[in-house]
């Protein structure tokens, strides 16, 4: 998606360890026009797949997921992060694995996911895929069908997206970065 | 706003201590059609006020703020909640007071608020007004003008909204609840 590449090149800030900061249009200040264009692109890619729910994870996935909910004309559900050990029994839960960290739990109220659901999981970033894998497992626990994922920026060099594709998960990313060099130059996958 | 009242009466769940749970359409699963209608209503109420930025607080204010950003055709900025004591000096910060609790700090990167900004603060709920007051103070620290607030559900019986109006803050709420009775009956202000 050329417009997104242009935005990344113009406003993205590269930090050491291949960190890309895009808080001027994606995850602190948000350009909702861009989110709507991304939603339109995802809608065209997923045309005919009968998606009836958008699922994301708080916080930074919510704006693009809201735009998708409007374009797909379906509800959005956002999973909540929780540190509570004693969860009520009316939620589905899963743990997002983080190496060198204890990770965190995510929950969705059982009443908002069902075997009738055909879900598009939406998020702002995909790196190693820990959050996405957790959202997929949580959806499966509800008996729902995960039609696929819609990602704004995929860090291809972290391999989470390609691993999921190998496992048969449909992952549509608006841009895939294959490298961020030390001088800040970014290579995008064609 | 009659459609919102109908939604509250149909899907809202009343719990002890006048707690209203509306997680089926406002703050877990979200009805973006309704958020867009609320945004249109706020746009018409704030017509001619030259709002150039929507400000909210993560998490549950984000969906309605995103809808407003689209209708007003301006960016949204969401303040972040933080538990970090050592904040960088490139953020504005303010503490959200909570009685019987230590409260929490909110931050916005300085680059996203300026004296040129004319801000509409948007949130899902307004009760005692602690979060809203904190967002107003944070905006003022940036030299920005707070044109007003747009609230989905105001708990009138908590008096935060009326206190702010007395202080000269424009607060537009889509519904104001004046009472939630023990039997679950809700009185709406005309």
Question: How does this model look, in words?
Answer:
The structure is a homodimer of 190-residue chains. The first copy, chain A, is α/β, with parallel strands linked by helices and 190 residues long. Helices cover 28% and strands 34% of the residues of chain A. Chain A has helices at residues 2-11, 32-45, 62-72, 130-141, 160-166, and strands spanning 13-15, 19-21, 29-30, 53-57, 76-82, 91-96, 104-109, 118-126, 145-155, 171-180, 186-188. In chain A, the strands form two sheets. Chain A has an eight-stranded mixed sheet with strand order 6-7-5-4-8-9-10-11, with helices on both faces. A two-stranded antiparallel sheet of chain A has the order 1-2. The A-B interface holds A 23-25, 28-33, 35-36, 58-59, 62-63, 66-67, 69-70, 73, 75-78, 80, 108-109, 111-112 and B 23-25, 28-33, 35-36, 58-59, 62-63, 66-67, 69-70, 73, 75-78, 80, 108-109, 111-112. Strand 5 (76-82) of chain A pairs antiparallel with strand 3 of chain B.
